[in-house]
């Protein structure tokens, strides 16, 4: 870096401005690489950072080409050599940046993959817990339904038993009423016979009295 600063003092002002633009873009790329190193996902964020790096890399290459073209336009060979020397140093920096970008991307993708695997395993474990929970709920519900059915069956049996008892009681009442009616009917027939017999006896008595008086 000290050699570069020393050489940059010897180049024309136009070359210094161009070198400043190159250095500015390099710092921007380095900052983006650092963001990738610290990135844990998601993948969309990594893609956005790489898109920004791609744009900065294109800008860096264009500035390097301008620096090279500027070196060719110099009248003094010393200026040309000084500019090309600076350009070669930034070519090396470009290679280091490309290597850093690849390593940062590999590390970031590895972290994202690890996170996705952990999320997948966590989701599977959660799904398994939910399935077990659903099975337990189903078993509990089935048990409750069975208990309810048994309770209904017991209540129905008790109701049937009560109904049978009531039916028996009602049958007894009906039988008693029938007996009373039969007894009443028999008594009514007897009463009628007694009345008829009394009428006959009364008639015979009247005839006998009449006969006695006539004779």
Automatic annotation (TrEMBL):
Its main location: endoplasmic reticulum. Residues 50-77 form a coiled coil. One of its GO terms (molecular function) is SNAP receptor activity. Keywords: Coiled coil, Endoplasmic reticulum, ER-Golgi transport, Membrane, Transmembrane, Transmembrane helix, Transport. The chain crosses the membrane at residues 193-210. It comes from the Eukaryota. It is a single-pass type IV membrane protein. Belongs to the SEC20 family. This is Sec20 C-terminal domain-containing protein. It comes from Exaiptasia diaphana (Tropical sea anemone).
